[in-house]
Amino acid sequence: MVAASRYPTEPLKLWKKAKELREQYYANYARAHDKGGLRWSGSAWALDAIPTAFGDDVYPLTGEPYAAAISADHKFAKQCMDAAESVGFARDLCSYMRIYWGGMHLNKYLFGGEYPKPDFIFQTQICCSHSKWYQHVARTEKVPEFYLDVSVGPYKDLTEERLNYVASQLHEGIEFVEKATGRKCDDERLIRAVKNEMRSAVLWAEICQFNKAVPAPLDEKTMYSLYVLATLHKSSQWCVDFYEELRDEVKDRVARGIAAVPNERCRIMTDSQPPWAFLKIFRYLESFGAVSIGSLYTFGLTGIWETKPDGSWGPRTLPWEKGAEMRTREQVLRLHADWTLAKPMFQGFFDPQIKTEMMKTVVKEWKVDGVMLHLNRGCEGSSMGIMENRLGLASSGIPVMSYEGNMGDDREFDEVRSQARVDAFMEQLGLRQLTV
Amino acid sequence: MITAGIDMGSRSIKIVLLEDIQVEGAPQIKYDMKKPYLMMPGDLDLDQAAEIAFDNACKEAGVSRERVNKVVSTGAGRRQVGFAADSVTEMTAGAKGAVYVFPNAKTVVDVGAEEGRGIKADASGKATDFAGNEKCAAGAGSFAEAMSRALQLTLKEFGEASLRSDKTIPMNAQCTVFAESEVVSLIHANTPKEDIAKAVLDAVASRVCAMVRRVGIERDVVLIGGMVHSVGFVSSLKQAMDVEELLLPEYPEYVAALGCALLAAETH
After folding, report:
1. ipTM
2. CA distances (Å), A371 to each of A226, A259, A356, A422, B149, in order?
3. Closest residue, chain B, to A422 (C-alpha)
4. Which one, A52, A277, A324, A417, has the greatest CB density within 10 A?
5. Are A27 and A110 in contact, with CB atoms under 8 Å apart?
6. pLDDT higher than threshold 70 for residue A151
7. Which residues in chain B show pLDDT less than 70?
8. Chain B interface, mutation test: which of A406, A421, A428, A431, most B Cβ atoms within 10 Å?
9. What's the rounded Cα separation, in Å, for the pair A177 and A166?
């Protein structure tokens, strides 16, 4: 029996295009050398405008979304983790890192063929794993490496010295890529790439902001397939163009009252990366009429936000809209550093209280009824301080549940027990299953 | 009206039959709790085990099945009870039952065979927050049971033995298997049984307490579930939670079933 819908729903028109762009991205990386292009690898958080400034044929492979894609393939993910453990790496390390390493050691690419060795590494380091991850890749594959330290404390405490420290590393990053590729940095291209990176972040935040509407036009499971594009190549023109189209479609869904979950009667937010191999847990929530409207993770990994004059949370104003000049390399890199350091997901690394306050903002403005925290054993960064977040939310009267799992290592996720947790949480929120 | 609550636990089935007693002028309905019935499931066929247990419970109570107006189930196998009109989680059932038995209860600690949990309850018996152990059973009864077997004691003897110890031996292992190897090491080191028993029960209490702290420890605190029968565990838990009193129901393993029977009565 299926309960009657409360709202109209329809598939997202751009869904197919999002999938095609993602497939194209992985194919482009693998085939980069065919036409004399270059490949680089680094984190989804890397400031990718720098390598983009060296040509449209410089293709990235960002490690986290690549490992997440592998983790949805139980068999290959297991092979990768086994391979990493065979080399001697411990099972409790970052699961994305282990999966990426395993694929490299197996010399297999998820999308067919051999692991496409990068020509250089361009990486940020906000958590311990980030640097070690690519240090091992660089040493194994014997390719040059560059690390950008962004661990300068929370954005609210940013000083000139701290900003200069990061901005100066961006200059060094350009010198590094010049040396590693033999190409010269094109400053016009750099300015365009930085602007694209900023526009991607703002467009994604705009899209997420539409989920304040009731019913929510997007559910988080769908958002995972959309936000990922900015984690692949946020400074690319294709990413900006797609997000503009997507923003318009989501805006239209809100105007027409189109729901992601037609039975929406309860709004949940999550935290941290989900256990990728078990996204069906979101479908299970829907059987209670619960929609996950997103999370600080989906909103703030690539989206950049600010508090607006009316106190609400919205997309950050673009620097050039505030009159900032972006004509020289110096100006652009400084703005780029400042922009990146405001990333919401960075803030939790420095102070869980800041993250708690942002979560409370989301709860209030996105009309959230309860919070599901994933105690993610696979990611030290996004799980850091999560129990403090729990206390902060609960003491504000916000219903919270937690479940243990691992974003990439499905051996650490207990489906039955997690589902039982969801049952109890739904009861706590006064909900019964709508569909049987 | 007669209602029933059935708790399909991982080890045993617990059933409570309730008959409401209308007392004129009384502020609330009183319930007469029929004799509880407990059985071990004979096989893995939970549907059949539930049927047999319910039949036997009705016979014990002298009530025909037809007279039971509504059945609500809980426990790990709650969805296997074909004759139940509804099912609820252990959190909802435990909070409801505990607050009925102890109306001032605000924190309910439930330690069963495979799971331990902390529940925050409001005055109506609604669970408002909860925390439970995850994949490890080291904060649950089966762990204490396994360790008592290693010492060749019954669970009751194990609990009593721990009270004779004044030692504090830390057990650091985070899972049953490794904890057992710690116990074996203590045995080989000629550590007295009572000291080992106390170390084990302190460790279980410490893990349970850490879970309960997640929801906050607010008086009155009630302990339900089979581990109430271990006097040593009760003592260890009181100490770990730093509370003077832990309220203990007369039939601790039937509280969740009682909660179900109450919910059945309220919703019939």
Report:
1. 0.76
2. 22, 20, 12, 11, 41
3. B89
4. A52
5. no
6. yes
7. 21-44, 134-139, 173-176
8. A428
9. 17
Structure confidence by residue, pLDDT tens digits, A69-86: 999 999 999 999 999 999
* CB-CB under 8 Å, B91 with A427: yes
| Residue A295, amino acid | S
pLDDT score for A370: 98
- Residue A426, classed as helix, strand or coil, is helix
- Could you tell me if A414 lies within 8 Å of chain B, comparing CB atoms? yes
Ramachandran angles phi, psi of A17, nearest 5°: -65, -40
Nearest residue in chain B measured CA to CA from A370: B129
Angle at Cα A386 formed by Cα A380 and Cα A392, nearest 5°?
A: 160
Task: For residue range A231-259, list pLDDT tens digits in order.
Answer: 999 999 999 999 999 999 999 999 999 99
Q: Where are the alpha helices (DSSP H) in chain B?
A: 46-61, 90-101, 141-150, 155-163, 176-188, 193-215, 231-241, 255-267
Q: Report chain A's mean pLDDT, rounded to a whole number.
A: 95
SS (H, E, C) A140-157: HHCCCEEEEECCCCCHHH
Do B134 and A414 lie within an 8 Å CB cutoff?
A: yes
User: Do B49 and B41 meet the contact criterion of CB atoms below 8 Å apart?
Assistant: yes
Report whether A122 contacts A146 (CB < 8 A).
yes
Residue by residue, DSSP assigns A163-229 as HHHHHHHHHHHHHHHHHHHSPPP-HHHHHHHHHHHHHHHHHHHHHHHGGGSSS-S--HHHHHHHHHH
Q: Go through the domains of chain B in sequence order and give each one's CATH number.
A: 2-102+252-267 (3.30.420.40), 132-241 (3.30.420.40)
Listed in sequence order, the residues at least 6 apart from A230 whose beta carbon sits closer than 8 Å to its beta carbon are A200, A201, A204, A239, A243, A302
Q: What does the alpha-carbon distance between residue B212 and residue B217 come to, in Å, rounded to a whole number?
A: 7
What pLDDT score does A1 carry? 47
Query: In angstroms, what CA-CA distances link B34 with A167, A176, A181, B2?
Result: 75, 80, 82, 10
Give the pair of three-digit tokens for residue B253.
């393993």
CA–CA distance, A393 with B46 (Å, rounded to integer): 39
pLDDT exceeds 60 at position A180 = yes
CB-nearest to A427 from B76, B88, B131 is B88
> What does DSSP assign to residue A314?
E
* Cβ count near B217 (within 10 Å): 17
The pLDDT assigned to B59 comes to 87
Length of chain B equals 268
pLDDT, one tens digit per residue, over A257-294 is 999 999 999 999 999 999 998 999 999 999 999 999 99
Q: How far is CA A267 from CA A2, A321, A390, B138, in A?
A: 20, 34, 17, 34
Q: What is the pLDDT of residues A26-35, one digit of tens each?
A: 999 999 999 9
pLDDT exceeding 90 applies to what percent of chain A?
92
Place of tokens 């039982």: A420
Q: Contact A417/B135, CB-based, under 8 Å?
A: yes
Q: Quick check: A16 contacting B, CB < 8 Å?
A: no
Identify all chain B residues contacting A399, using CB atoms and an 8 Å cutoff: 128-129
Condensed to tens digits (0 to 9), the pLDDT of residues B145-175 reads 888 988 899 989 999 999 999 988 888 766 6
